[in-house]
Amino acid sequence: MTVRPIKRALVSVYDKTGLTELAQDLHAAGVSIVSTGSTAGVIESAGVPVTRVEEVTGFPECLDGRVKTLHPRVHAGILADSRLESHVAQLAELEVEPFDLVIANLYPFTETVASGATPDECVEQIDIGGPSMVRAAAKNHPTVSVVVEPADYAGVREALGAGGFTLEQRKGLAAKAFAHTAAYDVAVASWFAGTYVPSQDGWPEFAGQALTKSAVLRYGENPHQKAALYTDGTAGLASAEQFHGKEMSYNNYVDTEAARRAAYDFTDPAVAIIKHANPCGVAVGTDIAQAHARAHACDPVSAFGGVIAANRPVSVAMAEQVAEVFTEVIVAPDYEPGAIEVLQGKKNIRILKAAGVEGEATELREISGGALVQVVD
Questions:
Q1: CB atoms within 10 A of CB 123
Q2: Residues 188-225: pLDDT tens digits?
Q3: Which one is catalytic: 16, 139, 171, 353?
Q4: Can you list the domains of the chain with their CATH numbers?
């Protein structure tokens, strides 16, 4: 049987978005809820019956909440494979009830580091029990479902109405859970190697990156090549906001990134125009409109159908100049009032807003078997 009914759930979340509604839906479906600390408090305040985890373990939460769920009565309930008679028998002998669903998300380590918190504060936001529960449930996906994002709560509701998650759905949730903990571990390890325990030569002993698929592109550099866009969760071109135009292509991204890097090489207002990986013009000016006019004048013919990047907000004056020439993409850190409306008069132009590149200290280039990293010029 691929569908597993949900009878008992373990809920322990830092991000409590949608928690009240979810708890109410679980209760309405007859699901018994076990929870921890502040999560249990929110569920109780919603009038939903909940068993606190210390009632299950017989051991109080301790060490300022560092130890809550790290107990055999919790992890045996998550890791028991109910397809195996021996596991079912051991649970009965140990008087441990199995869990069918684990809902957990982790302490905000990355956000804490970004806030400028002290090292001790950052270390305190390294989650231990959360990843342990998530990984345990993901490993045991043949019989347990795991949810790590509030965006997936709608799927929980659908599963409750359908009698449970299917095996394929549990596999998908497990894959997302392992990606969730992997990205978390990369963030922690990178901070330790790069900031907390800096090396003598200035280069961290470990460098990691977690990428998440954002879009499947029409094709790659050539029509016969498949391609996709992945993001790392930081601001930049990969997560740019698009206001107008068709979907970005692989070559659009390549040219746009080259144009942005060229424009941001300057502290004065600057514009770069790139087409087919070749520069058509790069210039600075007293304002962004003048910079664009100068960049366009470098090679007006080649600029036709090119990509434009500005290192300042696009003004209406610059937008009016761009609108006179066919342009594939324009990207800038922002747009002054009225500029987007002018550009939208061109049917196919892709209008992007993306954070600048000033904060990037290093750049990476992949080579066979590894990567080269250098300080940004």
A1: 15
A2: 998 888 888 878 888 888 888 888 999 999 999 999 99
A3: 139
A4: 3-195 (3.40.50.1380), 239-353 (3.40.140.20)
